Hints:
mainly alpha; Growth Hormone, Chain: A; globular; disordered N terminus
Amino acid sequence: MTSTDPSLSPSRAPAAFAGAPPGRPSLSLPPLIALSLGSFLVMLDVTVVNVAVPSIQDSLHADASDLQWIVDGYSAFFAGLLLLGGGLGDRFGHRTLFLMGLGVFAAASVGCGVASSAQVLIAARLGQGAGAALLIPASFALLQAAYPDRAQRARAVGCWGLVSAVAFGGGPAVGGLLVSGFAWRSVFWVNLPVAAVAVLLTLRHVPAPGRRARPGRTDPAGVVFGVVGLLGVTGALNEAGSVGWSSPKVLTLFAGGVVSLAVFVAVELRLEKGAVLRPEGGRPLLPLSLFRDLRLTATNLIGLLLGFGYYGMLYAATLYFQQERQLSPLRPGFALLPSVCMGFLAAPLSSRLTARSGPYPPMAGALVLGSAGFLGWLAAGPGTSYPVLLFALMATGLATPVTVVAATVAVMEASPADQAGVASAVFNVSRQVGTAMGVALFGTLLGATGGMTGGLHAAAVIASAAFLLASVLAASTGLRTDAARARSPELTDDGR
């Protein structure tokens, strides 16, 4: 895949990474650091708040519903607005959207830090989700354009994925340190210096691409029904973990979300058909023709299963350490560190394997390892020795970032250059919806009559099955892709 924008060519990049192997394109670090810091902010704030919940409850007198939205409202709004963020970036420029996302995220973090009530904190957390929805698709598209060479791109995505994995997995430990040393508000103030550095590096080192011609009006109906539909489904999944799957509130949110998404698909199909006949008319927010590519469809399903299994089990493991093992707020984060630290091995390993063999073999192998790792949680009990759990933590901690990096490269290779933001948004929506499903289902299992240990074991078996299914999907997609390349030798590494 090559960039069509000369302002994003490697020749315009700053000094290269000195450690690049001979014969390979050099990897420019400043753009990578800027884009990775944006991803760091987004992923850190998914989990950093978890250990601050008791302090927030005491300080703001928040009830159970308030706490649910303080923790999960961010992810729900993030998922709900991702398609809009991807479409805006493809239309108006990804660098502009990335900077705007940093500004919105930083302003919302200030709102969280000064919140005087639970309602104000919830509103500010939703603002963080809106900023995150602008940041992630733009970051993805800028990476794709800045590193067009396949090997170079795989290494860049490996670093980007490592930062994301460490931020997400290290959130509980960072939150525990900040809450113990300062106060709960510090988990939001820490975002400001990171955002400031990201803005400065972006302004200086990430080139501003020329705006691509995207004729036609914005898709207002698609925006409304897409956002309402995704918010309805993810909101229902978030609520189900605390109030139950049969709650009228959950059923209403879910039904409304599904109906809105059905209308969204109908609107997008009509607009996409009309855009072919009349380019000056409205353009769809999500071009459904993207899913004609088997690689994109399969990778999005893998993303959903990945989020469902790993992040659902990470939530279950946190509850296990806090409630079953009665660990203090600081210690669960450190108990999960072996899983997080595997990212330092996984990211360079995945980038090398992906550059050498393509994205699908590393995905398939890593997902098998993760499937076996989840079964290690079957040894967990009220008094289980911590070393017994290390295999489960380390195997899943290695498998997940390897898969994320390889899947990100697969989406980059399969997506058209002018629709990179939307393709990224769809992939991240899949992961977020999968995460919400896993958290909701596994949270329900842990609260069932079988007790914490029984629920944890059931969740582990389900997560293992999800990873195994994703592995089969990755392997079969890789075989089909290789067969297609063999039939058409003129295809590039990007499959076109």
